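quick one before i forget lol
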Amino acid sequence: MFISENSYNNERRSEGASRAVAYYADINQHTRLYSIDEGARPRQEQEPKPSRKERLKQQEIAQPRLSGMRTLLDFNEHFVELSNAGEEKRSLGFMLFVLFGLIALMPAYFIGLLLTDQKPYPQDWYIAMGILLAIGFLAFLLIYFLIYPHVLAPAFFTSLRARYRFNRTTRKVYVLRPRKYGGNVVLDWDRVQAHVRWAPPKSWTAEQLASDATAREARLRSTGRDSNLLLYWAPLDANDPERKGEDLLWVGPTGSGESLWQYIRTFMEDGMDAVPRPSEHEWLRKGFSGPGEHLEETVMHGSHMRDDIIGKGTSGATFTNYATNFLWAPLHSLAERLCYWPTFPEEWNSDCGQKRRENGIGPEEPMRWTCKP
């Protein structure tokens, strides 16, 4: 889904690119952005012993890890592939879509009962048709202007998810996403900066966040269930009114932050052996999922992890979670089929000459190969 991307896009259309970046994306003079050079690194042979100040600075930097979150689509010596957040909310959006459809059809049902009366009169027919058309028109306006832009557009009739390939061999970031959210693009890794504590502005206005340090700190403290790692590419020319070269990517699942950034940065700078190998809980499925797969991999993911940590088998909370969600899993699977699965253009050679699968979950062989132009 493209919830953050859609909100940013709406803000950009209504207020302009500069204001949207400063307000919604929280990229401004008050924001701490990390470069690719800032990260923990192992001490090299014959390197001088670090000072106490240097050791303390290294301890403040998060360690590269995925923290048990379903994050990776692919992992090998050349690239890691990740996606964006919000997939768990797709079934909720589909339920709202069905609910609004039923509400809109209820008047038609009662009007149909009226028209099938034993003694229909011509004037009843015209009145009923007029009411039906009016209700249909109002329902269309409501859905198109209030519901579709904010609820349906990020979830349906679009790409199933964004795909980001961080290729350390080419030092490029290959991006697949719908055109309305920036389109497919190839970005230079060396220009990226990371906002590791991004959170949506919620109820704070742009004026409050620009002038009140307390509001800015409260926004940063609100990071948690709604937070994300945000990667930013500044315009190639700061004075360019068209802001060419500027781009933003919301990367990873909801709740991701500095640890995920350090995982990506360490992989890109030091290779696959410098980061922890992903566990079975940290893989995302490529392509579409069935009801059972969605239930196990998304809905029950946290419950299974807690049971594994505790080590006492399946808990009562896990059974409760399953019982309250298994009926909605088919809705999510159906909602996915209203989208398409994006694939990388062959001319990009983003896979370094080794074709990768487009469905399934988990590690894929080979993980090492000679890059082919």
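fyi The mean pLDDT is 85.
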